[in-house]
Write a structure and sequence with these properties.
alpha/beta; Rossmann fold; four-stranded parallel beta sheet
């Protein structure tokens, strides 16, 4: 039987709770909180996150017919997993993913680095997170904003660095799982 696996990114609370609506609609689906997001030690790059996700899934007996669904960091992890373990993955749903390094607007990284030390910048960071979720149902948005406060801007900085250095251009043609 197909197993839906939702993988979060650094936005929308930076945690599995971002997929609450989807998880209610697909009650047998799973969605881990990635390490460094509420608990644990962050992974330094997408490849290590993919290995962590694989270990998490295998520990639950989930290792075949996977449909990995992710946005930004989660999409990069799903793509890496699909390339590394194609026999375990039935399909990929990837949103806002790049198979090559990305260049962000000036100040993107700096804001997240300065936010923990500067209350004004921290409030700007929170306002940015809230604005990015303006279409999210208000109750869920407030829960996700609380998660952002718990996870913090440095976690988001490291996530963006992992996303922005992700590069599988040399392997993408060999992708076997279907993109859905």
């Amino acid at each position: 039987m197909t197993q839906l696996v939702f993988l979060h990114g650094p936005g929308a609370g930076a945690c599995a709770e971002a997929y609450d609506c989807q998880r209610r609609h697909f009650p047998d689906s799973v969605a881990p909180n990635l390490p460094g997001h509420l608990e644990g030690t962050r992974c330094p790059d997408v490849a290590r996150y993919a290995e962590w996700v694989r270990g998490w899934l295998w520990a639950q007996g989930l290792n075949r017919d996977l449909v990995l669904v992710g946005y930004t960091l989660g999409a990069s992890i799903a793509l890496q997993y699909g390339l590394d373990y194609p026999d375990e993955v039935k399909g990929l749903v990837v949103m806002a993913v790049a198979a090559r390094p990305k260049v962000r607007a000036p100040g993107t990284y700096e804001m997240r680095l300065r936010a923990p030390e500067d209350p004004k910048v921290y409030e700007q960071w929170l306002a940015f997170q809230r604005a990015a979720m303006h279409l999210v149902e208000p109750g869920l948005r407030e829960r996700l904003m609380e998660r952002h406060r718990q996870v913090g801007p440095l976690s988001q900085y490291h996530d963006l660095m992992a996303i922005d250095t992700f590069d599988v251009r040399d392997r993408i043609a060999a992708l076997k799982p279907k993109l859905l």
